Amino acid sequence: MSALTPMVDVLGIGFGPANLAVAIALEELAPHLSVAFLEKRLGPFWQPNMLLPGSDIQNHPLRDLVTPRNPRSRYSFTNFLFEQGRLYEHLNLPLHYPLRAEYAQYVSWVAGLFSDRVSYGCEAKAVELVQPSEGMESHYKVTCADGRVRLARALILAPGRTPHIPAPFDGLADPRVRHLNDYLPALAESVAATAGQCRVAVIGGSQSAVEIVLHASEQSGVRDVVGFTRNFGYRQKDTSPFSDEVYFPAFVDTFYRASPEHKARLRRELVHTNYSAADIDVLNQLYVRRYEQSLLGESRLQLRTCEEIQACRPSPSGVEIESRHYLEGSHHRQSFDLVILATGFLDLGQGDRQEPFPPLLAPLVGEQHRGELAIGRDYQIDLANGVPVYLNGLCESSHGMGDAGSFSLLALRSKAIVESLAAQLAASEHRHDA
Ligand SMILES: Cc1cc2nc3c(=O)[nH]c(=O)nc-3n(C[C@H](O)[C@H](O)[C@H](O)COP(=O)(O)OP(=O)(O)OC[C@H]3O[C@@H](n4cnc5c(N)ncnc54)[C@H](O)[C@@H]3O)c2cc1C
C-alpha cells in the first residue's frame, strides 16, 4: 500500500471554509509542504441546503478566508468582487451584510482555485496510525467511503460540527425528521410526497429556525408551518459591540487561559451573541408576517412559544409532536409531514450538547484521553503518538465563541495551525534524518 499510495505532508479532512482558509495559508506561508484535502460533498459548496433566497451572512464580509491575516491576498472577498467585475455594484447595495448567495459564490470561487488539491465525493471514514517501518516515519492512513486511501504526516480535521439532535428526536430514523443541514432537499421531498400539502414543524429559536419558518411559510407547496421554541419569544441576538469583542483575536487568548469556571461563566453570559437568538431583520419580518396573517384571517403560520417538546411519534399519516406549555402546563399534539430540527450543533467536551472528541478520531483517542481531550492553543490535540493532528473549527469550548461556527477567526486560526504544523514537520524531519 505505502509503495503505491503517495504520502503528503498535510491531509485536510473536509474542505469547507475552515480548511479552505488553511489551504490559502499553506500556499502563502508554507508552500514547500505537500497538501491534499478530502471533501465528501461532490463540489465546493458552502451550506448549500440553507441557501435561502434573500438571506444574508452573519459575519463582517472582510472577516473572510484571508483578509485579517493577509489583506493583500488574491483570495479575499474584495478581490473576488473585483475579479467578477461587480465591486461597484456590490458596494452600492442597500444591505448591511452581503447576501449568503454571494458569499457562497465567493467560497466556491476560492475552492475552485485549489481544485488540484481536493478530492470531492471522498468521505473520510477511518483514520489509523501507521507505525514506522522501512525508512518511513509514523504517519496516518485515512480510508474513504469509496475505498480510496491517503497517507499523511499530519492531519487537519475540519468536518464541521456534529448536528445536535435533542431528545425526543435522538435515535429516530425517520426521513421526515431532519436537521437544518438538510433543509432545502428535505422540504422539496416532502412537498412532492404530499402533493403540495406539506405540514412543517420547525424546532428551535436560532437564526436558522427563524429563517426556515419564514422561508417555509412562503412556499406554495406548504400548507402549515409551526415554529416551536421553549423561549418566551424569538429572541434577538446580542449584537452589542462590547459583546462582539468575543470575535477579536485577543479574546481567544483570554478565553483559552480562563479557568473552567470562568469559561462556563463567559459562555453563559455571551451565548446570545450566536445561539438561540436571531438578527432583528428576520425577527421583524416574522412578527409582521404573523400580524399580517391574522389581519387576513389566515392561520397557516403559527408560533408556539414557551413550549417544550415532550414526544415525537412517527406514524404513516405523519409525525406527531407533543409539546407542553411550561407556564400553563397544557399539552398540544399536532402531526407534520416534515420536522426540521434547527437545534444547533455539538461542541467538544463532557457536558450537555457536547461530544468528547470528533467521531472520526475515536480509534486514535486512547483510554487516557477519553475524559478530556487536551487541545493546545495552536489547535493541536495531544494523542501521544508524535504525529500531529489539528482541529479546525471545532474548538469553541477551549478557544471561545469565535472558534467554531463562524468565519470571524478563520484566517488567523489557519495561520496559527500552519505555523505550528510547519515547525513540527520540520522538527520531525530533522529527527528522522538524524
Ligand atoms: C445555515 C448556516 C449559515 C451560516 N452562516 C454563517 C455566516 O453567515 N457567517 C459565519 O461566520 N458563519 C456562518 N455559519 C457558521 C458556519 O459553521 C461557518 O460559516 C462555516 O461553514 C464553518 O466552516 P467549517 O469548514 O468549519 O465547517 P463546514 O462549513 O460545515 O464544512 C465542513 C466540510 O467538511 C465536509 N466533511 C465532513 N465530514 C467529512 C468527512 N468525513 N470526509 C470528508 N469531508 C467531510 C463537509 O461536507 C463540509 O463541506 C453558518 C452556519 C449555518 C449552518
Topology:
Elements (H helix, E strand, L loop, with lengths): L6 E2 L1 E4 L3 H13 L5 E5 L37 H8 L2 H5 L8 H14 L4 E3 L3 E7 L8 E6 L4 E4 L2 E3 L19 E3 L3 H11 L4 E6 L3 H10 L5 E7 L20 H9 L2 H11 L9 H16 L5 E4 L2 E9 L2 E8 L5 E6 L1 E4 L5 E2 L5 E2 L33 E3 L4 H4 L10 H24 L1
The structure holds flavin-adenine dinucleotide (FAD).
Low-confidence stretches: none
Shape: globular
Series of secondary-structure elements, N-terminal to C-terminal: EEHEHHHEEEEEEHEHEHHHEEEEEEEEHH
Number of helices: 11
> What is the gyration radius calculated from CA atoms?
23 Å
In terms of DSSP E residues, the strand content is 15-25%
Q: How many angstroms does the end-to-end distance come to?
A: 26 Å
What number of domains?
A: 2
Q: If classified by CATH, what would the architecture of the largest domain be?
A: 3-Layer(bba) Sandwich
CATH topology of the largest domain: FAD/NAD(P)-binding domain
- Report the structural category: alpha/beta
CATH fourth-tier homologous superfamily of the largest domain: FAD/NAD(P)-binding domain
- The percent of residues in helical segments reads 25-40%
What does the model show?
The protein has helices at residues 17-29, 77-84, 87-91, 100-113, 183-193, 207-216, 249-257, 260-270, 280-295, 396-399, 410-433; strands spanning 7-8, 10-13, 35-39, 118-120, 124-130, 139-144, 149-152, 155-157, 177-179, 198-203, 222-228, 301-304, 307-315, 318-325, 331-336, 338-341, 347-348, 354-355, 389-391. The chain contains 11 helices and 19 strands. The longest helix is centred in the C-terminal third of the chain and has 24 residues, at 410-433. The strands form 5 sheets. A 5-stranded parallel sheet has the order 4-3-2-8-19, covered by helices on one side. Strands 9-16-10-11-12 form a 5-stranded parallel sheet. It is 29% helix and 20% strand. Helix 6 links the parallel strand 10 (198-203) and strand 11. It is of the alpha/beta class and 434 residues long. Helix 6 packs parallel to helix 9. The structure holds flavin-adenine dinucleotide. The site of flavin-adenine dinucleotide (FAD) has 29 residues, from helix 1 and strand 3.
